[in-house]
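Subject: for your reference before the review

Hello V.,

The reviewers asked for a structural picture of the protein, and I figured it would be easier to keep everything in one thread rather than splitting it across files. Below is the amino acid sequence we used in the manuscript, unchanged from the supplementary table.
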Amino acid sequence: MADDPHSIGDILDGLDELAGEQDRVSLGDAVEAFGNRSYGPFLLVPALIEMSPIGGIPGLPTVLAAIIALFAVQIVLGRDHLWLPGFLARRSARADTVRKATQTLRGAAHHADRWFHGRLPALTRGPFVRVAGVCCIVLAATVPPLELLPFASTAPMAAIAAFGLALLVRDGALMIAAMMLASVAVAVGAGLIGSKT
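And here is what came back from the structure prediction:
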């Protein structure tokens, strides 16, 4: 991908481009393709993968949550260049599976890209980025126990996706909505976990 993505459509285009160039698409390939000038894709892409049909693979939501937490810690620390350890960077999916996932997400991406853009951009810079990172760490921590319940991990992943999209398109109003969604997701997740213990 020549340019950093500025919308979900750009991210899906980038994943399709990678899938068209090789038999398997690795996380390392995606990190390299999305550049390092925006934190948004690094939160958004794993969350979108979990919310797609691929997310139904047992254990994958927990792996994706770990990746999100790793990126979120680096965001909180203010790192300019986000890093993945080799064993995660080498994790890959078949190209046709990636293409199916991107096609599934196209409709929702089109609507999201139309609605979310550039409102209250000051809320997507400086300390607010670190606040988003902390929220994503907390949300990611709820995923492993929720994975035991069908589709329960989708709620925290949706909140993480909202943070990623807010940072990607510089939409402060969406950042506020993501914080509210995060609060609801954590409360509901805690209730579900509590009811199963």
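For the response letter, the relevant points are probably these. The chain has a mean pLDDT of 81. The first helix runs from residue 8 to 21.

Happy to draft the paragraph if you're swamped.

O.
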